[in-house]
Structures are given as structure tokens and as C-alpha cells.
Amino acid sequence: MATPETRRKPNILITGSPGTGKSTLGQQVADRLGFEFIEVSKEVRENNLQGEFDEQYNCHVLDEDKLLDHISERMDSENGGMVVDYHGCDLFPERWFDVVAVLRCSTEKLYDRLQARGYTEFKIKENVECEIFGSLLEEAKESYR
């Protein structure tokens, strides 16, 4: 099992509210560094790693155990060089990441982006409030001090 001290290249987590640009930045970082990019939402869809459907949020619930099992070999590799895009950081073992970036966005821009994605008003409100309160930044600070 790799650790930050034994990895040849760092693993990077890009986190933030939906609509802040995680996937776009993650792909760009991976391309420029020659790293592998794991867009968690895409991994979940393509590998059937979701659980039940949540009517309130109008999406499937992530099966966290399936996801972690699915990516653990790549994340624990001595090579490193992984860029992961996910909205939170507390799901993952802290040992997996050397760098954590939390993307932020103005609430007006975020609202427009989520509305353009077809999010319900409830889901938009939840995500905008999360951005206002800086919940994901606080989560990252607590996990990676």
C-alpha cells in the first residue's frame, strides 16, 4: 500500500460543489501532468457503482463501498499520478492524496450552471447553501490539516 512518502508521483483530489469546474480542471491537470483522471461520477455510471434512486435529489445514491473497492488498486499504486474529481473528501482514505484543491464559485454563477444542468430548485438551493457556508472547504481543512 502506497503512502505519500513512497509514491513516485502525487495523487491529487479536486473537490467542490457541483458546477464549480472540478471535471474541467481535473482533466486539464491530468492532461498537463500526464496523470490518470478519475471523474467519480463517470466511474459510477460506467461501472454500475450506484445504489438506490433518491427521489428528493433526483439521482442515484453512490454505493461508497463499491466505489472505494473499484478504485483502491489505482489509488494505492506506488506510481501515484492520479487526479480524482469528487464533491467531497471525507469519503476517501486520507492516505490516498498528497494534494487537495477545493474549488469555489460565486453563488450567482453556480445557480445559473446548476439550473442549466436541469437541477431541481431544491437541489440548487442545497448546493448553493453548501457553497455559501463553505462546507466542503471546512471538510477538507478538517481532513487534511
From TrEMBL:
<keyword id="KW-0539">Nucleus</keyword>
<comment type="similarity">
    <text>Belongs to the adenylate kinase family. AK6 subfamily.</text>
</comment>
<feature type="binding site">
    <location>
        <position position="22"/>
    </location>
    <ligand>
        <name>ATP</name>
    </ligand>
</feature>
<keyword id="KW-0067">ATP-binding</keyword>
<feature type="binding site">
    <location>
        <position position="24"/>
    </location>
    <ligand>
        <name>ATP</name>
    </ligand>
</feature>
<feature type="region of interest" description="NMPbind">
    <location>
        <begin position="39"/>
        <end position="62"/>
    </location>
</feature>
<dbReference type="Pfam" id="PF13238">
    <property type="entry name" value="AAA_18"/>
</dbReference>
<keyword id="KW-0418">Kinase</keyword>
<keyword id="KW-0698">rRNA processing</keyword>
<feature type="binding site">
    <location>
        <position position="21"/>
    </location>
    <ligand>
        <name>ATP</name>
    </ligand>
</feature>
<dbReference type="InterPro" id="IPR020618">
    <property type="entry name" value="Adenyl_kinase_AK6"/>
</dbReference>
<feature type="region of interest" description="Disordered">
    <location>
        <begin position="1"/>
        <end position="21"/>
    </location>
</feature>
<dbReference type="GO" id="GO:0042274">
    <property type="term" value="P:ribosomal small subunit biogenesis"/>
</dbReference>
<dbReference type="InterPro" id="IPR027417">
    <property type="entry name" value="P-loop_NTPase"/>
</dbReference>
<comment type="subunit">
    <text>Monomer and homodimer. Interacts with small ribosomal subunit protein uS11. Not a structural component of 43S pre-ribosomes, but transiently interacts with them by binding to uS11.</text>
</comment>
<feature type="binding site">
    <location>
        <position position="19"/>
    </location>
    <ligand>
        <name>ATP</name>
    </ligand>
</feature>
<dbReference type="GO" id="GO:0004017">
    <property type="term" value="F:AMP kinase activity"/>
</dbReference>
<comment type="function">
    <text>Broad-specificity nucleoside monophosphate (NMP) kinase that catalyzes the reversible transfer of the terminal phosphate group between nucleoside triphosphates and monophosphates. Has also ATPase activity. Involved in the late cytoplasmic maturation steps of the 40S ribosomal particles, specifically 18S rRNA maturation. While NMP activity is not required for ribosome maturation, ATPase activity is. Associates transiently with small ribosomal subunit protein uS11. ATP hydrolysis breaks the interaction with uS11.</text>
</comment>
<dbReference type="GO" id="GO:0016887">
    <property type="term" value="F:ATP hydrolysis activity"/>
</dbReference>
<dbReference type="GO" id="GO:0005634">
    <property type="term" value="C:nucleus"/>
</dbReference>
<dbReference type="GO" id="GO:0005524">
    <property type="term" value="F:ATP binding"/>
</dbReference>
<keyword id="KW-0690">Ribosome biogenesis</keyword>
<dbReference type="GO" id="GO:0005737">
    <property type="term" value="C:cytoplasm"/>
</dbReference>
<keyword id="KW-0547">Nucleotide-binding</keyword>
<feature type="binding site">
    <location>
        <position position="117"/>
    </location>
    <ligand>
        <name>ATP</name>
    </ligand>
</feature>
<feature type="binding site">
    <location>
        <position position="23"/>
    </location>
    <ligand>
        <name>ATP</name>
    </ligand>
</feature>
<protein>
    <recommendedName>
        <fullName>Adenylate kinase isoenzyme 6 homolog</fullName>
        <ecNumber>2.7.4.3</ecNumber>
    </recommendedName>
</protein>
<keyword id="KW-0808">Transferase</keyword>
<feature type="region of interest" description="LID">
    <location>
        <begin position="116"/>
        <end position="126"/>
    </location>
</feature>
<dbReference type="GO" id="GO:0006364">
    <property type="term" value="P:rRNA processing"/>
</dbReference>
<keyword id="KW-0963">Cytoplasm</keyword>
